[in-house]
Protein 1
Amino acid sequence: MTVASARAIFAIRSRTLRIGALEGDIIYGSRWFFEGSCLARRPSDLICLRISRPLLEVIIRQHLLSLANVRALEDCAVESLLENSGSVTGIRLGNGSVIEADLVVDASGRGSQSPQWLEAIGHPRIVMRVIKGNLLSAKAAQNSPTASS
Ligand SMILES: Cc1cc2nc3c(=O)[nH]c(=O)nc-3n(C[C@H](O)[C@H](O)[C@H](O)COP(=O)(O)OP(=O)(O)OC[C@H]3O[C@@H](n4cnc5c(N)ncnc54)[C@H](O)[C@@H]3O)c2cc1C
């Protein structure tokens, strides 16, 4: 983790707390269910922020957009990669405009089209291996201190 990203995390944490997020022990302050059973609640040192996902996303977005060297382009999807002599040199957007770059980072999630885009500019097909993690989804019910007091 870089100093800049650590600073960003602390700035985001402070902001979420200022606007009402709750910080607390994720094990003791929550009720966790795994495979139908409730886990024992014991004090731990796992301190977490309790905040809704939409609110967290808004705060992160506001923080990023406040940075001088960050710019957001809305309502435009990346359609393909720009290429020069086998190297990626930028992106082409759905509206036809292009952005040239020294480095392109694909953060488009699990539906990423990078394999197809790279293939389209002459790179060999990326061989993907699916690793089954056997992880389960868990839900936690939480009472806020204000609600229980
Ligand atoms: C129903 C559901 C519940 C989940 N619950 C949890 C949870 O409780 N806790 C947890 O930790 N994780 C959860 N996850 C997983 C979590 O959402 C993902 O791991 C996480 O969002 C991945 O982040 P990401 O930034 O890689 O991709 P994403 O969040 O998918 O972001 C990708 C972004 O790229 C954009 N994009 C895609 N293609 C293009 C394109 N061609 N041009 C421009 N933009 C593009 C998309 O619009 C999107 O905004 C859940 C996932 C699902 C589906």
Protein 2
Amino acid sequence: MINSQEEKNKEDLLQNIQSVEENISARIAEQIKNLWQFGSEENSSWKRFGSKLYYFSQTSNTWEKAREQCVAMGATLAMVKTDEQMAFLANEGTPKHWLGLSDISTEGTWKWLDGSIPDKRLWAPGEPNNEGEEDCGEINGRLNDLQCDRLRPWVCEKSIAI
Ligand SMILES: [Ca+2]
Ligand SMILES: [Ca+2]
């Protein structure tokens, strides 16, 4: 009698363990699925051009907030060094968006966020004109200076991890 009761307890215990195992397996499978979906979502929102990946925002913000958003993504506001990059950025996403370009530190001295000087040929005709104190750079066909507190979508760049 005692033996059969013990057998029953063992069986119940084994069943419990089995159901806990199944539960855990299902939850792990769910988490893996979520991770995979998140990963592909993030990958699909970055576009590759040359040796860089570009992220085009779906929302608008001030230049400073846009700069912070890029940093939060492990990236930087995009910098344009070549005609090819200019053409790519002008044709992707919205027609106008913030770039990593400003003359905030010294009025009239334009610099990319990496400290380099923008190629003069990349400015739109008549720009930069500092009309109404414009210290931040956007792409609008070509480069234009604009008031930093204006709201624009933005584009981040990061190098492809090797
Ligand atoms: Ca300025
Ligand atoms: Ca301007």
